[in-house]
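Handoff note, outgoing to incoming analyst
You'll be picking up this chain. Sequence as last confirmed:
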Amino acid sequence: MANVNLNRRAEIGREKSAKTRAQLIAAAHSLFRRQAVESVTVDDVVREAGLAKGTFYVHFDDLHDLTSAVADDLIKTFDELLQPARLSLEDPVMRIAFGCNAFFEQASADPSWAAVVARMGSSVRSVGEVARSRLFEDVRRASKALRPVNLSAEVSQEIILGIMFGVLAALGEGRLSHRDREEVLSALLRAIGVGDRQAKSVLAQLSRLHRSKRTAGAGRNTSKRDSV
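Most recent structure output, in case you need it:
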């Protein structure tokens, strides 16, 4: 019986620790939405979370460590939302464009999200690890169809990540906007060896997907109104 109680006590401790860590991440995320990342302090975070300052250092080494966790959480959550639509696409080039387009759309709608993801995603390799692995698989498959360019999957992935993190940073700082979406995606596809004709076809398919999604959303809203 004692062993069972000790096991349960340890489980409760882990659950409490995970909850506290999540509180700190949520507090930092909330602060990053309201002010510049570099202006946030540990005191700000624990005040926002309603926790003691010492608790912060139980879970994170410093603000850089916390910011990395926030960025990883943002990417992981968004990437999981994309998965059903991503897996419905057979063409790996289309998958790459779809994912990059989705991140661009999210970043242009939420510049603070873009700023955090760009800063930490480009400087901390572990941030967005699952999303990176999915991108690499798509790039690896796509590279077989883009052999004349003679780029390895590793190089193509780094090109995509470099462009996207730079674009997200520019969106976060207001140097780019949603108006630049098609030009950015076109440049990205060409950078990994996609020809002009294929790039235009992929962008046209993305536009059709976007229109059908909006139409479906409008239809659901109309049905809700009609049922009231």
